[in-house]
């Protein structure tokens, strides 16, 4: 199984952290996109992104050991100024051979072609391109996107957080919901005749080992040769290496789903999110659920709409 592991490259003790994670069989992935933003402030978001571009450049210039391993980076959408800033930094790292450049929020083949052309003109060295499908429009256009894609495109990622937001769903659907797997099936049906690898969306319940194993079990049930997983922790990454040994009952998982009103859920989620640390676009609840900015935005919109209509 191909594993893309979003690593914590912003840690002060990164050397020790990387020594700890380096023995897992994953493509170590840096993020310059959704994990770096300040909701409601484009100027602060731009500042944060530039700060972390500088951190990325510093690490790769001063910690050459990481270059012995496959590495990837998720850049910003090809049609944004932030992508142009990403290019400027990546161009200075011409000694790096990226295993994969991940393009987010893809809805057309034009965006993919533009990004690849820009990367090559800036002499960014890469082996593969991955595209992230994160909206209904992206799903609808996926067949045309991959038909018109260059051979550089090897991976199709699913981003279920943005997809939930695009569908105006609250609470978000995750790997415990059958609807989530209907979405995955829909994508795999489109990719069936293509020589591409599908990369499943990350599991946001960071400490829930049983749920993550259930997620891997569900992936294994699809009749699709090339499937991979995005991970958010070392434990998740290691579990992906044990897919052949998954043979257990998951019957109690669905009983654990919480039943509460959408209003209460939205209020609790936004309260937790507002207490987040600075320069992070996410927050983590007491039960180790990662509250992503997309769900916070959806919950906030829901509560505002309810206020206006009440």
Describe the protein:
With 310 residues, this protein is an alpha/beta fold. It has a single domain, classed as TIM Barrel. 44% of the residues lie in helices and 16% in strands. The protein is built from eleven helices and ten strands. The strands form two sheets. An eight-stranded parallel β-barrel has the order 1-2-3-4-5-6-7-8, surrounded by four helices. Strands 9-10 form a two-stranded antiparallel ribbon. Helix 6 runs parallel beside helix 11. The longest helix has 21 residues. The model has no long low-confidence stretch (mean pLDDT 92).
Number of DSSP helical runs: 11
Helix content: 40-55%
The number of strands is: 10
- In this structure, how is the largest beta sheet organized? 8 strands, parallel, barrel
Low-confidence residue ranges: none
Which structural class do you get from the secondary structure elements? alpha/beta
Oligomer: single chain
CATH H-level superfamily: Phosphoenolpyruvate-binding domains
**How would you write the strand order of the largest sheet?**
1-2-3-4-5-6-7-8
Question: How many discrete structural domains?
Answer: 1
Order of helices and strands: EHEHEHEHEHEHHEHEHHEEH
Give me the CATH architecture, please. Alpha-Beta Barrel
As for the CATH topology, it is TIM Barrel
Our estimate of the beta-strand percent is 15-25%
Q: What's the end-to-end separation, in Å?
A: 50 Å
Question: Can you tell me the CATH class?
Answer: Alpha Beta
Round the Cα radius of gyration to an integer and report it. 19 Å
